[in-house]
Specification:
3-stranded mixed sheet; disordered N terminus; 644 residues; 5-stranded parallel sheet; alpha/beta; 7% strand
Length: 644
């Protein structure tokens, strides 16, 4: 990966000079735990020699930590070597873990050194050592030490997870929350983290596969805990505002953003070709466009020109009756992106959040959802995430039928799809699919920036096409007077579908349209369209400012109402391998002007979907209330009979 203007190279010489210190830490040090508890397994000596090896004590100048507790000797190299029992030789995987930890420690220490130079911490540290630190700078010194500790810890966890990424297996380990997070200084912080890692290895790693899984899981948990602590810490601007690139590993440090190894997922699903998706014209067209939009992502700039121009779909909701083709649409889109990525040599990662993610343990469902999000948003891959049957997976707040696990998933998805920390780079997209979108929490549903109505086959031609497709070739029944798939010519079908939204489809919305149009005439100005939007809000108070944003985003997508040419996907040199600025210029040239018709159609498309959901949701609520009343009446009757 080439360096961009805002990226600094972390030189190999700056990393290598910390190797000796990193090895010394891995060989052994003393640490008295402050927060974490020593496990019985970890405290057991593995051999008579471990307890007598040399120990390395904290020698940070000017800092003394006192404790009457007995120090715990940590010997990670010995611990790792004992992961497979009594084999006296170190296995290849054990050696890989040792090398990864040494490398990760050296990178973390090098970044910490860079931070100290950038903030003046190095000068304050020397002054403290000499006893000449001014009294009015002691608070600053303490805060900088804490910030350096957090930065060093996160880089260590990040680099460890990154370096071990290619060596993982299907084995997974749950290590739980990291507790020993210390921020006195960087060295003590690393000692605390490595002490807890040693505990986890002793507890969870009886073999090499679980050793890798344990260390990788610990690194992930360490990053998450440190990132949370950093939200309330100061003096981190020099770390979060800089980017370091380690060329030898293709590893990038960007603040508290994980840099997972770019690794594709192996897809086992059956892919579908576009002509095998019958009907669903707008949904199919948008899926085709979005698949190509993703490919415009620039890995060096870590940004997609479509995201900058305002025409990128980060989240979308696909809804329709059972059997209308939602799964087929997912198979088509995943297949297209997979083929495009294979052709360009890009890593592609697909993940689905399923009902198996709901866990009875508190917090585990939310963690599963967060892992799903992090897998897909990784800026080093092209990602596609799906949430099938989201009405079953994510709970509706205020609904007594929603479990704690479902509500955890709702909270994570809401924060990830449009929260304060959401960054849309344009390398991934998320699709939420449901047969019953009215059962999805209103706020979560409104975080879907685009709506794909998956209505299945509609016309006579659609039904002939789907019968012909599903019958296969093992028969001699004549086709008859019909041109196969002619009705699926997408541009013609899409144009007709968009035009149909010149007026609303839902009765409730049509009433609003007729009233506003009767008062104002043709809706041909911003003021008149704004009045129409206010009329919609008066009819349904769930139609908020977020709905307006989703509509304007959809209009911007319509301004990008073109498909990137197929030859750009087939020959990457024509577009995919060009620089970011060249891609931006090529896309800008294809943009169309925004028209009144586009805006009206997108208002009606979005509002129709909300009215459709609201009507169904209200009807379901009424049915439930009627059912509940019937139960109460029956209970009352039985109660009175029993009394009599």
């Amino acid at each position: 990966m080439s360096l961009t203007s805002d990226t600094m190279e972390l030189r190999e010489s700056d990393i290598a000079k910390h190797y000796e210190g990193a090895v010394a830490i891995l060989e052994g040090f003393d640490h008295t735990p402050r927060i974490g508890k020593t496990s019985e397994t970890a405290s057991t000596e593995r051999s008579s020699g471990i307890g007598t090896r040399r120990r390395f004590r904290n020698t940070t100048p000017g800092l003394v930590t006192r404790s009457t507790a007995r120090p715990e000797g940590v010997h990670l190299i010995e611990r790792i070597g004992a992961a497979d029992g009594d084999d006296p030789l170190v296995s290849p995987l054990q050696a890989t873990v040792m090398h990864a930890l040494r490398r990760a420690l050296a990178i973390a220490l090098a970044v910490g050194e860079n931070y100290a130079e950038a903030t003046g911490l190095g000068d304050l540290r020397r002054a403290n050592l000499a006893g000449s630190l001014p009294a009015d700078r002691k608070t600053e010194f303490t805060e900088l030490l804490g910030a350096e500790a957090l930065a060093t810890l996160h880089v260590f966890g990040n680099a460890t997870a990154f370096l071990l990424g290619p060596h993982g297996s299907e084995v997974s380990v749950e290590v739980g929350e990291v507790e020993e997070i210390l921020t006195d200084n960087a060295q003590l912080a690393l000692h605390g983290a490595l002490w807890e890692m040693d505990q986890d290895i002793a507890k969870h790693a009886p073999d090499d596969a679980r050793l890798v899984a344990t260390v990788a899981a610990f690194a992930e948990q360490l990053m998450e805990k440190v990132a949370l602590r950093a939200q309330n810490a100061g003096r981190l601007g020099a770390f979060t505002g800089a980017t370091w690139q380690v060329e030898a590993d293709d590893f990038t440090v960007q603040g508290f953003t994980p840099s997972a190894k770019a690794k594709s997922t192996t897809l086992t699903m059956t892919f579908k070709k576009p002509n095998e998706v019958v009907g669903n014209h707008i949904a199919k067209y948008q899926a085709l466009k979005l698949s190509k939009m993703l490919m415009a992502y620039d890995f060096d700039r870590r940004l997609n020109p479509f995201a900058e121009l305002g025409g990128f779909i980060f989240t979308f909701m696909g809804d329709g009756k059972p059997g209308t083709g939602k799964t087929t649409l997912i198979q088509m889109m995943a297949g297209l992106i997979n083929d495009y990525c294979n052709n360009a040599g890009y890593p592609f990662r697909y993940s689905n959040l399923s009902t198996e993610s709901i866990d009875s343990y508190q917090g585990k469902s939310g963690q599963n959802a967060k892992d799903f999000i992090n897998t897909v948003i990784d800026p080093t891959v092209i990602g596609f995430g799906t949430v099938d049957d989201i009405d079953q997976l994510a709970g509706k707040r205020g609904d007594r039928q929603s479990s704690a696990g479902q509500l955890e998933i709702t909270a994570v998805l809401m924060e990830s799809f449009s929260g304060a920390n959401t960054v849309v780079r344009g390398n991934c997209t998320f699709g939420m699919f449901s047969n019953y979108p009215e059962n999805v929490d209103d706020a979560l549903r409104q975080r879907a920036g685009a709506r794909f109505l998956v209505d299945g086959p509609q016309t006579r031609e659609d039904y002939i096409d789907i019968l012909h497709l599903l019958m296969g070739k093992n028969h001699d029944i004549p086709l008859g007077d019909h041109e196969v798939f002619a009705a699926q010519e997408i541009k013609k079908a899409v144009a007709a579908s968009f035009e149909s939204h010149g007026k609303p489809h839902e009765d409730g919305l049509l009433t609003v349209w007729d009233r506003v149009a009767g008062e104002l005439g043709e809706l041909d100005t911003i003021a008149k369209m704004g009045t129409y939007l206010k009329g919609i809000q008066q009819a349904d108070d769930r139609f908020t400012g977020r709905a307006i944003k989703n509509i304007t985003d959809a209009v911007k997508v319509r301004a990008m109402d073109f498909e990137l040419p197929d030859e750009w996907m087939e020959n990457p040199d024509l577009f995919l391998f060009k620089t970011y600025d060249e891609k931006l210029a090529m896309i800008s040239d294809l943009r169309q002007p925004i028209t009144i018709e586009m805006v009206i159609q997108e208002i009606n498309r979005y509002a129709d979907s909300e009215f459709r959901y609201a009507d169904k949701s209200d009807e379901v609520a009424i049915e439930n209330a009627v059912r509940e009343m019937g139960r109460m009446e029956e209970a009352k009757r039985r109660y009175l009979e029993g009394k009599g």
